[in-house]
Structure formats: C-alpha cells, structure tokens
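Hey Z.,

So I finally got round to the magnesium ion thing we talked about over coffee. Here's the setup:
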Amino acid sequence: MRLSRYFLPVLKETPSEAQIVSHRLMLRAGMIKQASAGIYSWLPLGYRVLRRIEQIVHEEQQRAGHIPLLMPTLQSAELWQESGRYDAYGPEMLRIRDRHDRDMLYGPTNEEMITDIFRSNVSSYKNLPLTLYHIQWKFRDEVRPRFGVMRGREFLMKDGYNFDLDYENAMIAYDRHMVSYLRTYERMGLKAIPMRADSGPIGGDDTHEFLVLADTGESEVFYDSAITDLRLGDRLVNYDDPAELRAICEEWTTPYARTDETHDETLYGEIPEDRRQTSRGIEVGQIFYFGTKYSEAMGAMVTTPDGARVPVHMGSHGIGVSRLLGAIIEASHDDRGIIWPEGVTPFHAGIVNLKQGDSATDAVCTELYAGLAAAGLSPLYDDREERAGAKFATMDLIGLPWRITAGPRGVAQGKVELTSRRTGESEEMSPAAAIAKVV
Ligand code: ATP
Ligand code: MG
Ligand code: MG
Ligand code: MG
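And the result:
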C-alpha cells in the first residue's frame, strides 16, 4: 500500500475524551471513529488488525477441530423466552420490535440459538462430540461503555459451543478450548493467563477467564509469578489426545491465578512470598462448562448407546476479538505509539522515502516494496511529500515492527537503514539484506 493513496487519518492532538493509552493511540493512529457511545467504525488501519486477529482465531479454532458457521445478529425473543433468559438478562439486552410487533433482540450471546440449531438437527450420540463457533458482532447495552473498543456496546466476539454426551467428554472439550486459547493469545504476542473465575448467576462448575496483565484492566487479579514463565512455544499439540490436553491444562492451572471474585487468601498465602503477585487484568476470553442448563430448558436431547435419551452437555467459550486490539496495545506501546507484535501487525514493514522524487531513491523504495510483496508480506510505503520527521512520527505511531529508510546518501552507497520498532536499533545494509531480515 502506498500511503499517498491510503486512508490513514492520523490525529496530531491527543483526543481528550480517551482515558487510557490504547484508546488514545487507536484514535490518533486513525484506526477507529466513534459512531455513537460504545459503537465504532473501523477505519482501514484498525480494520486490517481486526481481520488479522479474526484470522488467527479462525485458524486456531479449526486446528482444534471446531467448526465455523455464522448466526445472525438479530434474534427472535421466543428462544430466549424458552430458556428463561428473556426476562433474566436485564437492561444489557437491546430489545427491538419489528413492524409486525414481534419482539426481537440484538444478540448479546448465542446459547439459545445454537441450542436450537442443535436440537433441530442432532439426536444421537453418534454425531458427538461437536463444537460449533462463529465470529459475529454482539450488542450489550453496557451501563458505562468506555475505553474505546475495550468496553464497547457493539463488539466482535468469537463464541463457540461444545455438545457432548456426558461430563467427561465435555471436560475434554473444555481442555481443548483452554489449549486453543493459549495458542491463540500466544500467536498475538500476548500473555493471557487463565484464571479460575466465578460462574455467577448462570451457575455451573468450571470456568476460567483469560486475563492480560495491564494497569488499566478492570479486574483485580492475584497470581503466582511462576505462571508468567509458561509458554507453549512451538510445541505440537495433538488435539485428539485428551491426556496431552489435560497435561497442558494442568501445567497452566496448577500455579495459583484468580480474579478477585474467586480469590482465596489462604491459598494465596501458600505461594512463596517472592512469587506472590497482585495486579490488574483485562478479560480477553472465557471458557465455561454449564452442563445441561440450556439443553434441559430447550429439550436438546440425544440418545445414548444404550438407547436412553439424555440432555446434551454443553459449554460456551468466548474470545473478545475487538477488545483484543485494545488489550494488545495496552501491553505493547511506548510514548511514541503502538508496537505491534508481528502476528497481528496491519503491515509488516514501513518503507520511508527521505527524498520523494529523487529517481535513485524512488527506485530503491520501489524495489523494496516489490521484494517484500514477493515474499508474501504487506509493506506500507510512505511516498508522501513530507519531512522526514513527520514520516518517522507516523511510522512510530502506527507501530509497524520494521521501518526501512531510504535516502539519497545511503542509496549512493547501495545502503538502506533497517530499524526495529521494538528495540529502536538501526542497521545499515543493502536493500536485499533488509528484505531478507524482515522476511
Ligand atoms: P466483562 O466482564 O468485561 O463485562 P463478560 O464476562 O461480560 O465481560 P463474556 O460474556 O465472558 O463477557 O464474553 C466473552 C468475551 O467478550 C469477554 O471475555 C470479553 O473479552 C469480550 N467482551 C465482553 N463484553 C465486552 C464489551 N462490552 N466490549 C468488548 N468486548 C467485550
Ligand atoms: Mg459483561
Ligand atoms: Mg467478565
Ligand atoms: Mg466473561
């Protein structure tokens, strides 16, 4: 992409309405524009990151054997009346009436709808296990939408639902989700810690929230610092091996890690003192086993191998796709702007031309662009007639991992400058070497 032809409305001023750094940087970098309270337009740069995050979520879900589908945003109230949640959900649910006076709602989540899809089509244990998921916009009329996309009213969520014959199998699905979530966040350059959470009014037994440590997080968290050293790395996970999944989950759930809702002072006190940590955290996902709550209420039954009919065991599992942009920026920025982890960056490298119109420099920039594109990467070429300082400030603000700078002096010696956004270190080298290093 050439910046002169792109739409990147960066702001020079720091927007006064934004209270936290990720919100400020997303506005300044021209990633989002508020449409109304808690509802945002995704401008091109923000949209690119959103799509990359979505793509990682899809890949990791499908790697775990989960099947994508797409349910609508608008739902009929009837299903929610069946489950009993139409009245219970309260004012967070946006209720709508259509021209025929039918009660509708903008879905805050999809347990009812997926249970309806399941019961209409599946009736035997032979079709289990089954996990279906989608990535779709949700609406929750939050009392206080704030912090930009972190607590929006309209937000993008991945929500997945497992259907299993019994508790044991549902626990395998639970473990599969935990492992797939660990992989997902790690690919985004995030450390998201699974913490035992409170099942709240929905009831049920097993639930973990995934929290990214950040001062601006809305949850208070307590943990054993040993958990922050854990990494999946390039371990190959066999999702068909329940014992392997269990072992990984045990590794991640043995060190103490809880939110304030489930915090236990006695257990916390048993951690060696130098490893006791308390901090703030951003909830970027949650996994939840709730058993037969919806299947009983809505009659989602399956026959067992012995011919009995039993309600199917379920769980639901969410990832805050749009919230993740804010969480990643909270975890990765400096005073000049965003520092995108490679996994989610909107462009892989920025090319800065220090003398637009100088034919030798222009030629080198074009060569860099073509080389990066040929390697399958997306470069952003700043070909505007701007001062070097302004170009550098824009690149720093939008946080691409690499900047390649070309100017007449270096070009005369066959050199460009490669700069790492994260370390700030620069090195001179040939254009081919710079391309090789970025790839
Ligand atoms: P919170 O405690 O922050 O209100 P939640 O527990 O109500 O979130 P879940 O029902 O667990 O949310 O939804 C799954 C994920 O969706 C959450 O872990 C979070 O990352 C994301 N999410 C929830 N509410 C919002 C929101 N208002 N804006 C953006 N993302 C959200
Ligand atoms: Mg909530
Ligand atoms: Mg929560
Ligand atoms: Mg939650």
